[in-house]
Amino acid sequence: MINKNPERFFMEIYVVKEGDTVDSIADSYGISVSSIVFDNQLVYPYPLAVGQALLISTGGGNTPDYPVFVNGYAYPFIEQDTLDETLPFLSSLSVFSYGFTTAGELVPPAIDDTFMIRSALDAGVRPVLTLTPFGADGNFNNFLVTSVVNNEEVKSNLLSSLLAVLQEKKFQGVDIDFEYVLPEDRIPYAEFVADVRNFLSPYGYHVSVALAPKTSDNQSGLLYEGHDYGLLGEAADSVLLMTYEWGYTYGPPMAVAPINQVRRVVEYAVSRIEPSKIDLGIPNYGYDWTLPYVRGNSRARTVSNLEAVQLAIDAGVSIEFDETVMSPHFRYEKEGQTHEVWFEDVRSYREKFALIPTYSLRGMGYWQIMRFFRPNWLLLADSFVIQ
After folding, report:
1. How many CB atoms neighbour CB 367 within 10 A?
2. CA-CA distance, 241 to 365, in Å (whole number)?
3. Is the peptide bond before 76 cis (omega within 30 degrees of 0)?
4. Is residue 108 classed exposed, middle or buried when 0-12, 13-18 and 19+ CB atoms within 10 A define those classes?
5. Kind and range of the H or E element at 93?
6. Half-sphere exposure of 252 (CA within 13 A, CB side)
């Protein structure tokens, strides 16, 4: 089993200023250039952007005492190297995803996920089957939800199929991610989650459920109305708050997970669900918008956190940090068009991490781990005891 709590070094965050170089920053801290380069995945000849946040290992030792559960979602097309580098920081790995038919037959991912399960088990990480109601178009289909939560025969078929696959492939849990549940299916959906848990618990399987980021009981909108926090929190062993996608592909430029909005969801969640059951959703990506934004026409491009910084470096622009939403962002020009980028860095992650002990949460779940961002994982390991 991989050691999830290796030797730690006290971490500081340094924000690059005009005239800084990796050598000058290393000299000021009395540490090696190679340490900064490795921890921050810098690329030779190590150019920096003004406003870029760097994680600095300053030595000494840090002994965190707050235990957390850490989950990461991944598709079966994840690179083996990325998976191997991430697994030491995870408690569980959620394979995204398994679907089902209107008859309750389980539909596996198009790409074989055996290597993910094997790698997780070898690393002492729990592989989890993610169950989603995806239609033929690859989108969430609430008709599929209705077909299973309101029909005992279909539900029974799905439960049997789930158990067979869990046992055959050596999964250790199920994560239920049903989105855009119809308002009239609110109670049947919660009952379905409870049925899954009751059916699988005797076999030792953990059942979690993903929740839309609500801030009140009566929040309107198809994304929210079918998710009853109180009922679903009671039905499942644990829940994931999907606290991301305020800034999203088709929306206007803004932070993916603005801390003020994330906090509102957490405060509502702990009023309806036992905090020790709650995992905080954390995004591992950003977006690049072309301006002007035109609703119904504009489409943002997903970027990794490292790619976002490189865009700023290539364009020679400074990275700014919004103190209200606690997220980095910048604008740049390319081929006569203005772009706006919002992404995550160690400053924004530090703010999210702080919510977990503040509200006595169970841990966190990353959407998604397809791109390795070492500074996040080093900061995580320096902040918590990973279970």
Report:
1. 25
2. 8
3. no
4. middle
5. strand 92-100
6. 4
Burial of 222 (0-12, 13-18, 19+ CB in 10 A): middle
Coil, strand, or helix at residue 288?
Answer: strand
Distance CA 260, CA 279 (A): 17
The Cβ of residue 82 has, within 10 Å, a number of other Cβ atoms equal to 14
Question: Does residue 85 have an active-site annotation?
Answer: no
pLDDT 10s digits, 256-268: 999 999 999 999 9
The residue among 374, 360, 375 whose CA lies nearest residue 67 is 360
Q: How far is CA 16 from the centre of its chain?
A: 27
Q: At what angle do helices 186-200 and 152-169 cross, to 10 degrees?
A: 40
* Catalytic member of 12, 153, 168, 179: 179
Structure tokens at 45: 């000849």
Q: Please say whether the beta carbons of 349 and 377 come within 8 A.
A: no
Q: Dihedral (C-alpha) 179, 303, 107, 210: value to the nearest 10 degrees? A: -30
> How is residue 95 written in tokens?
């394979």
- List, for residues 115-129, the tens digit of each pLDDT value: 999 999 999 999 999
Q: Which two tokens stand for residue 155?
A: 């539900």
Under a CB-based contact definition with an 8 Å cutoff, are residues 222 and 180 in contact? yes
Residues 73/83, Cβ–Cβ less than 8 Å: no
Give the end-to-end CA distance of the chain in Å, rounded to a whole number. Answer: 12
> What are the phi and psi torsion angles at 71 (to 5°)?
-115, 150
Helices in 302-368 by DSSP H: which ranges?
Answer: 305-315, 346-358
In Å, what is the CA distance from 174 to each residue of 7, 28, 51, 193? Answer: 32, 48, 41, 10
Angle at alpha carbon of residue 261, lines to 319 and 52, rounded to 5°: 15
Summarize pLDDT for 311-365 with one digit per residue, the tens.
999 999 999 999 999 999 999 999 999 999 999 999 999 999 999 999 999 999 9
- Taking the C-alpha atoms of 82, 85, 90 and 92 in order, what is their torsion angle to the nearest 10 degrees? 50
Question: Measured between alpha carbons, how far is 170 from 158 in angstroms, rounded to an integer?
Answer: 18
Per DSSP, the three-state class of 109 is coil
Q: Which residues pair with 321 in a beta bridge?
A: 328
